[in-house]
């Protein structure tokens, strides 16, 4: 790959002109929403989250998914306001640095990078599982599905998926959009098909534990205990993660200051509608018992759709396998957008070595940063898959804390950045202060609650170190590693950390 290098920004320069060489005007509102939905990966996410969430909150599953939607919407409103004032591909990194200084901005972006890069390994691993399952179902050869448990085959296939996703990302937004339109359309159509089929079975009396839809399912206050409520909310918040990718494409969007914010909010609204429909249909069909197809059955919770697709969709069950495969594969590719552009911005402003600011002169994409992201994710998956699957999956669980932290800090950055003008009108008061303040506080509360809960060895895989849960230990390790990397970068290139960011460099 041949890249050009953008020079790091110098203190005192006019940051309003910090175009980084990305392709301008290639993403519209529809393209942004499709990419945002693909990053959230509804088919894959629902398959792995419906069971655990139902186990925590019972038949109040739809209510908890709606509650988890609220802080996401509040934070998205803050993102939209920040993007209007400072359209920059660095998003969390740039905005938090300007609001709270370079040290906090660096750590906020570190959490974003840790979450997005490491989750790539999880997405690729799921794609491998469903790849061989789909081939097995189509060919009728059951032994093929077992290939995913063959470690060498699993790793080689996983690395191939990552390489393909990186290649599409490197080719640019046009290639990305074409790829995403096909795969996102497939998973949405299949999820709608599944929902209609489930309701039809309930109506005909053929459902496993059929029940009519009840308004009580939408009452979050009906959950038995606060601990169950908190556990359910933590799970539901995580299922919305990924919408912010549309804002990181602001420098490549048509309508740089307006389109990304609109796309972020539309993405969340589309996803919450889809989640509500599918969760109600699944709950109506299966119930929450521990029976064979009940959502409370621990044997099916890791992959609800694998168990329910056959009974609900009959001979078309293979379409659900293809939908989850397309969901994880499309998310694998679109998730690369965010860390690559964050590292590009960090290299551009001098928070990382200048090589991270390299942009392909042909495709106008952050080539070097994209390669770094996929290499780290690939090495991590290969090593952990061989050494310990518990560490692999507990690391993925840990990422929930990273997400809550960087979303929460970014939302509060909006409050601080606009603090002097928020009261200028009722609309500004709501969108620049009240909404992001509530969203940021809620997510930081979830961050600390999850950190506290994860100290229990029973959290995650059940692994522990010295009586402390492995999820908590890994979370602390991620933060410590980030702090060490930040200090090393300070010692190598102290200019960024000594820089005073002036909020007046952008026009609100």
TrEMBL record:
Annotated membrane topology: Multi-pass membrane protein
Identify the GO cellular component terms for this protein: plasma membrane
Would the keyword Membrane be found if you checked this record's keyword annotation? Answer: yes
The cellular location(s) given in this protein's UniProt record come to: Cell membrane
Print the keywords alphabetically: Cell membrane, Membrane, Transmembrane, Transmembrane helix
| TM segment ranges | 26-44, 64-82, 103-131, 151-170, 182-203, 223-243, 263-285, 305-325, 365-384, 396-418, 430-448, 468-491
Q: What's a Gene Ontology MF term here?
A: transmembrane transporter activity
Q: Which N-terminal stretch is annotated as signal sequence?
A: none
PANTHER family, per the entry: AMINO ACID TRANSPORTER-RELATED (PTHR42770), MEMBRANE PROTEIN (PTHR42770:SF7)
The name this protein carries in UniProt is Amino acid transporter
Show the taxonomic lineage.
Answer: Bacteria, Bacillati, Actinomycetota, Actinomycetes, Streptosporangiales
